[in-house]
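Cross-posting from the chemistry board since nobody answered there.

I work mostly on the small-molecule side, so proteins are not my area. We synthesized 2-acetamido-2-deoxy-beta-D-glucopyranose and want a rough idea of how it might sit in this target. Sequence and SMILES are below. Is it possible to get a predicted 3D structure of the two together?
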Amino acid sequence: MKPLYLGSLLLFISHAQSILEVIQAATPPRLDLSTPTCKQYVFTHEFGNSYGSPYVGYYIPPPDCVYSTTIFNLSAASRGRQYDRLATLWLGDVEVWRTSTAMPTQTGIHWSFQKDMTIWDSLLRSQDPQKIIFELNNIIDGDRYTGFFNVTLEALYFDDVYEGKDGLHPAEYIYAISTRSSSNNTTSLFSLPGDSGVANLTLPRNTRTAVVSIMASGNAAEEFWFTNVPTEYINTFPENEGWLYGYSPFREVQLLIDGQLAGVSWPFPILFTGGVDPGAWRPIVGIDAYELPSFEIDVTPWLGVLTDGEPHSFALRVVGYDTSAKDGIGPIGENWWVSGSVFVWISETGEQTTAENFERDILSPSFDFQPTLGTRTAESGTVTNTSFYYTLTATRSLRVSSKITTGRHSRLVSWSQNVSYSNIQNMTDSAFNQSLKMVSSGTYSSSASNLVSRYTYPMNLFSAYKVQSEGATTNPGSVLCLVDRSKLNDGISILPFFTGTSVGPESLKTRQNVTSNYHWNSTIVEGTVGLDTMDGELWFSSSVSPGTRSGVQSYHHYAKEKDDALVVDDEGWGTIPVPSTEPLPVVEGEPEV
Ligand SMILES: *[C@@H]1O[C@H](CO)[C@@H](O)[C@H](O)[C@H]1NC(C)=O
Ligand SMILES: *[C@@H]1O[C@H](CO)[C@@H](O)[C@H](O)[C@H]1NC(C)=O
Ligand SMILES: *[C@@H]1O[C@H](CO)[C@@H](O)[C@H](O)[C@H]1NC(C)=O
Ligand SMILES: *[C@@H]1O[C@H](CO)[C@@H](O)[C@H](O)[C@H]1NC(C)=O
Ligand SMILES: *[C@@H]1O[C@H](CO)[C@@H](O)[C@H](O)[C@H]1NC(C)=O
Ligand SMILES: *[C@@H]1O[C@H](CO)[C@@H](O)[C@H](O)[C@H]1NC(C)=O
Ligand SMILES: *[C@@H]1O[C@H](CO)[C@@H](O)[C@H](O)[C@H]1NC(C)=O
Ligand SMILES: *[C@@H]1O[C@H](CO)[C@@H](O)[C@H](O)[C@H]1NC(C)=O
Ligand SMILES: *[C@@H]1O[C@H](CO)[C@@H](O)[C@H](O)[C@H]1NC(C)=O
Ligand SMILES: *[C@@H]1O[C@H](CO)[C@@H](O)[C@H](O)[C@H]1NC(C)=O
Ligand SMILES: *[C@@H]1O[C@H](CO)[C@@H](O)[C@H](O)[C@H]1NC(C)=O
């Protein structure tokens, strides 16, 4: 009897272990999530062949629940063969969460992620049912792409006491900069460059503070925008036609108010779970894959213009670098998905806000581009390109300020940004080998605080592809990928700060380095057991200034992964040292003679 019993126990254990938990490091939204005051399932939905068919339902807060904090817990399970997918969550016309999926295995994966939703309190608390839309465009086609995504969204409510100067004070109004299509049961994303990116909005006359929050990410020819080349270089290696995408590796997301630039973002480069090398991102996904970052622009200095009771245009635009344009600014490829929202706090006096001394100090970015083509001349005299090395650097400064009067109170407000960017690439082997050394960094300051906030995003990436002839079923391709990158933030999180969920500066240091060797056979989405190898390491350390005693002060996570498994997984309160991103070991071939 005993062996049989042991046998079935082992079977049980191995079944439980075969569901792989795929994680992203993130600061938990609260010290304890296990004892909510109230809790409800918002939806559970299976995304099969779901292109253009989002989940559409209604959100109503639980009746008679006394709460201040709302936390969403999004979970997903998948099994089979499938690409990574982007997904967006909407309350009406306002996008509140942009996420992406992990890539499944034949034995199944699972993940869950929690996000504090309290900044959207005025949308969430509405007693009129709020339309909730979750779009996850997935494809199931017979026996090739078989992975469904089963998604569950749960809401947890806590009655936290906020102890900041003004307690908890979420924005009174939130307006969408989107296509505003929820009445048609669809999401409201702008697809750039095709769509207008414009919404005309009328703000309350007594607006005291206004902040625009923007989500933007590149898809298709724009997914790896940071590895793109200036358009005139896409045919550098004619034997590898279609491999290089154009419009440069520089992108600027812009906010324009009545046609005038109000602020920019030089975006964080997201690597999705199918990105560069699908073997590199399991069981630890790339930084921010489950919660794509938004960025905020304080438009309070514009209130003199915006509080006249008339509609004003808020436009979102994405531009690239063009070597031949006078100001360097050029178009982009297809496509960027963008949306925004304007968070508005009003003054209790009810009087119209006025402003004087409105100043805009905005210069075009300055660019420096230095290309070097390596060539070889055959005995016949034929010249071919053997390498393409280039550096592109850019900087920009802008500042908008005014003196705002709300009621009897006057204050000087400003939005100021200094951003810089450097992108160095070397392409060899017809660009099948590509190395990238990129750093995007900057500072900003807003009307929230005198503190200057700063960020640095270094990324070193090398990939070497071997692609056999089309139609090959045995080892049609492989990729060696090395990536070492960090995300370092220090400063004020503008929306949580104005909301009162954060009362001071925050600091985040995270680094991820991965070496992966991936071989696909019949489809690129599935690797080859026995040939694939992966080693990775992740450091995450944060310190936060929560507005409530139930909030997290500091948190760390260190993990090490090997071949689809975590071999070290250490998380807890308190910070840890995070080593800096390092140059990659030399992986190019020998210099050619
Ligand atoms: C929109 O979605 C809601 C919620 O699922 C549903 O009740 C309604 O019938 C849908 N409207 C249309 C036009 O499909
Ligand atoms: C999130 O939801 C998943 C699935 O329902 C559940 O397993 C997990 O415990 C939840 N996490 C929290 C913090 O509630
Ligand atoms: C997804 O849900 C369906 C229907 O409930 C179920 O048959 C399937 O096993 C689920 N898939 C996963 C990976 O949990
Ligand atoms: C709803 O769909 C119809 C038909 O496609 C379209 O004409 C209309 O503009 C859409 N409305 C919104 C608000 O997106
Ligand atoms: C915004 O207003 C302008 C001027 O009235 C108008 O031309 C434009 O079509 C409007 N755009 C949208 C998206 O409503
Ligand atoms: C070498 O690269 C340059 C720049 O992309 C291109 O104009 C030229 O045609 C290439 N030469 C060959 C022989 O492919
Ligand atoms: C941007 O740079 C200018 C000039 O160096 C400086 O005066 C300003 O304080 C900087 N702003 C921020 C937000 O760092
Ligand atoms: C693909 O790789 C798997 C090993 O992971 C192997 O079992 C299978 O036979 C391969 N398929 C083809 C068509 O080579
Ligand atoms: C990550 O970087 C550290 C050096 O800080 C190095 O020791 C380690 O081997 C690297 N891991 C991988 C998988 O590249
Ligand atoms: C491409 O990279 C691979 C892997 O590092 C290396 O073996 C090969 O020599 C490189 N080829 C060239 C032309 O640089
Ligand atoms: C680019 O890589 C090639 C091949 O490894 C090498 O010969 C060349 O020196 C590299 N260029 C630069 C500027 O590093």
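Reply from a structural biologist on the board:
Welcome over. Reading the output above for you: The pocket of 2-acetamido-2-deoxy-beta-D-glucopyranose (ligand 11) is lined by residues 387, 389, 426, 428, 588-589, 591-592 (CB under 6 Å). The chain has one domain: 7-573. Happy to explain the token format if needed.
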